[in-house]
What we know:
Elements: E1 14-16, H1 19-34, H2 38-44, E2 45-47, E3 50-55, E4 58-63, H3 77-110
Parallel strand pairs: 1-2
Antiparallel strand pairs: 3-4
Amino acid sequence: MELKVIEKISEPLKSFETVDDISKYYMKHKVSIDQHTTHKLNKMYFIKDHRLTRIHGELQLKKRINDETMDEIPVSNDDLRERIAKIEEQLTEHKRVISNLVEFINGSNTQ
């Protein structure tokens, strides 16, 4: 069996601004679209504020949540350093509290 070499999908082939736009396109190209996985479809088509999903075999649109668009938000290195410093401070505080709790529990068991 010979393997096919496929190209990486780096840019969406088609973008849609509204749900109506993708709905009209889907009605015209239903057969070919239904042959692909939703993972591939979401790489091939960009639908503003939505992503394609398949529920019980039916292709549907799902509203994108903020986590899915986080990659689009530019963040400076200084912002990242500041966030990391805050997380490290919180971690140090959590470690201190846990140590105090362990000491308290161990002290209670010895009495």
